[in-house]
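Input:
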Amino acid sequence: MAQAASDVGSSSRGDYDASFGGAQAVKGRSPSQLFWARFRGDKFAFVGLGFIIILTLIAIGAGFISDLVGHEPNEVFVSGDTGMLDDFGLPNGPDMSRSFYFGADTAGRDLFVRVIYGTRTSLTIALVATGISVIIGVLLGLAAGFYRGKVDTFISRSTDVVLALPVLLLAVGLAAACSGRDGCLGGLLKPGLFLISLIIGLFSWPYIARIVRGQVFSLREKEFIEAARAQGTGDWAIMWRELLPNIVAPIIVYSTLIIPANILFEAALSFLGAGVPPEVPSWGRMLSEASGIFTTAWWMMLFPGLFLFLTTLSFNLLGDGLRDALDPRTATR
Amino acid sequence: MRRKLRLIAIIAVLGMVTAACAAADDGGGSDSGDEQQGEVTQGGTLKAALISDVADAFDPHKSYYTVNWGFYKCCLLRTLLSYNGLPTEEGGNEPLPDLAADQPEVSEDGTEWTFTLKEGIAYAPPLEDTTVVAEDFVRSFERLADPKASEGGYAFYYSIIEGFDDFSDGKADTISGIEAVDDQTVKFTLTDSYGDFGMRLAMPATAPLPEGVADGHVRDYGRFLVGTGPYMFEGSEDLDFEAAPEDQKPVSGYKPNRSITLVRNPSWDPETDDLRPANVDRIEVEIGGTEEDVANKVDAGDLDINLDGVPPAQQIREFLSDPEREDQVQAYPSDAVRYISFNLAEPPFDDINVRKAVNAVIDKDGMRRLRGGPQFGDIAGHIVVDGLLDDELADYFPYGNEDGTPDVEGAQEFMGESEYDSDGDGVCDAPECKDIFAVTDQADPYADQAALIEDSLKEIGIELEVQALERDPMYEKCNDAGAHVAICLGPAWGKDYADATTFGEPLFGSVAIGPDSCCNYSLVGAPADLLKENDYDVTEVPSADDKIKECDTSAEDERVGCWAEFDQMLMEEIVPWVPYLFDNRVEVISDRVENYTFDQFHGGMALDHVGVSE
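Output:
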């Protein structure tokens, strides 16, 4: 009965049936072929992927686009012939004839160019912060699941502790403490994108760690692990060569799903003034700058907000699609 | 120590000055006042708002805050001399007799000032049977000299009275330079001729203090304040000074951080007071809320004015674009200057040519636009605000263009003459011009202004590394000679009273170098040992001490000329700053307010001159 209900409700399930339920689905297929066949049918995930590819191109080509427009991200157009602020200091809106496609912000900077550069910031955070949390999460998850016992207890409780922390407050504090001219930890951490990525990464690994631990927990009882152990393979080699390749799929899925959370985390930090340095364009900071003035300068809220929304939505759609395609069981939920 | 106090005080003031004293020129209708004079509605309740409470809870000996001074001046305290509550061009910076029957008699050498008091001025209830006598001034100055009672205040302005410091240090039982000759006569003896002493006696801290009122209230005298102005705190009549100080209940009309309610003082006799029309019956001030919030209420007529905030740019634009409402926006010079300060001992700003180049390349019009445009002030070409120099230097723009636009070619010429531009192409090529340590305020619009400054400086090859701090830490950092801040982007300075001396020693005197003193961020006149102590490679910086001394002790009629010379000397021979804006205070009033007048003394609406229509 659950099967029937989900058949009606889920398009991906429907596509799945279309691909595999037919009479021709008798050929043997490799896992990647199976994955591709399932994923291909998920239109939403495809749109998400498409948008992410476009964003990536935008992020890479930000400098080129900025040259085309003729405005630098931190160049100000305050007064004189090129000025974008009126006699009351309020910014002018979108003006195609002057190549201010998204209008100007309160400092007289080109919002279009800044939103474009903001893509770079968000994707860098997405990559680096998520990378950090995946590395930490996978290592700890593997260790906990493989060794069990005290190691597991220690790691799992640590995970609980990190999950229980008031993450945003702590991150704001950390970011503020390290945002001084000399950074923190004796100058080891300088304010900038990496610092923010690190802070975000340090708080989002528990999700990965839990998933990995659970997977390893069941996998390590399987025969092929027993076999490897019987051959005298070391712990490290078992984890690295036998276990890890088998949990790549869930890692990819959950990494994709924490990317939007990390992007929003950076936006929240920047919104609160504890994010990336002011000269680095960030959607969160742009939204914060717009908050007091958006009744007059709606463009300052609309464009960065739209990009942030579409980006997180795309990663979520992609993540969902990947999950459905890689792990058919979840799709039937 | 006194100077240390001063630092904190001035920062507190500027916190407000910068927030509150935003300035513009003649955006509004300064004429509305005179036309309606005489037909102002009497009675009614004025409803005002404060975003944050006045500091020091209304203790006049402690309060170093212009918004608080506004309440004293209009309503609560009368002093020997005071002002007429009007703008500069209508005499608002001229001290006039208030409790004094006439202007003082000053001795030939300028050191003895004798005042005769008006007779029969009574204090507000519960002291309605007590009249002001000369001894009350002596008492007030003695409390002012007590470092505890005047903590955070401006007692240092009265060190020029003979014996004031000795009394303060506990070395004397009386202040030798203040004498109650008889009940109606008080005489001050000064250590030297100070032509601005009259203005110092128009400050609220010098108001007479009746016997017994402040006893036991070192910390909380403000809520037991009894003055002679046209208004008093509601519930003043219930004060009981017979009870032990700890058993006394404070006035009901002032609830710190919540509200202030002023009502008419029945003891006040309009016949004795030419300075205060006192039209409304009652003044209610609610404390708290956001600027947007208050602006909306003013818009709707639920509140009449925000006394300490800056109206949102959207509201100003909306009102000024509407002929029906444009006279609800009022803008007057607040006698404050906004500037960028160089550290004369820190490369590359140890080179005067670099400092001149920066002066020429800064987009002052842009800086003003980011503050809200022309309503918010006049472009500054020099340091002392025009209002204190009788406009003598109003046309003096040694760098850049008069309209505030940058002069890039001129700037590059200056830079070309600098030791930091080896090929003389007008763009700095020395490593000292990269990653220059700059500090600014993180609040709006300083961050936007910093972006503009950075953009402008690229023209002459200077690259800043800007650190944005909260306001107080910013001032502390810029004031700390040991912090090596090369350029401070966010400071502002307002007058305390209308003499340019308040723009002299505290800003450019060698005694005003921090961190133990204030506010000579540029290190003008720093002695060699101080530079060495703070690890500067530069061993010598120019000094302005001699000129400051000369102007400080000059007679009343020579002062303006002297300070104008001082200003020009600074701008041409020392160049410690880029002054960019003579600030305006911009206020938006509700359509109930009649006869708006700007009180030049404190830099805001004169609450005693306005009326409200019902």
